[in-house]
Amino acid sequence: MPALTGDGSLGPDTVVGPLDLAARVDEALAVQALAFGLSEDEIDIRRYIVLRHLKNPGARALGATTAGGRLVGFVYGMPNDRTHWWSTVVEPYLRRTGTDGWLDDSFVITELHVHPAFQGRGTGRELITALTDAADQPRSILSAIDTESPARGLYRKLGYQDLAGQVLFPSAPSPYAVMGAPLPLRRESGTGN
Asked: What's the whole-model pTM score?
């Protein structure tokens, strides 16, 4: 996989590659806590969720590491299944917009997080495109906080479009949007998360 430098060009300081997420779950959650603002209680809950997700058929993870081996970003996902908790929550919202068919034959991006000090270098773009390039499904879906953010901007540049907005997840303080894109994702120049 290519390495990324601070100016978004290819170089030696960050490498994207396979990640044994179960073995490095605490490092990954530390990145997510910084990028997403999680409390210790939320980290404990997410640890259980991540480890459970990794047992699903087709679940895969990639990490972005520095030359010294420090994990500074990660992504994981799996083929979507309508019986998964996430799908059961978003399905009524997608049905209202006539887009619930996106839940079938899709690869879902479950989490994508980059350490704040490494954002804006193209690391998030490299993680998500490398993960979806290996997917057997013809499209990808994900959820993101329903506000204009650098992450949503990146997803749009990659070809994701809003399928439903104001999706409420139990215990989540903010509403989410569900987005979908055909695979492979768009390749455009420029930096992103």
From this structure: 0.90
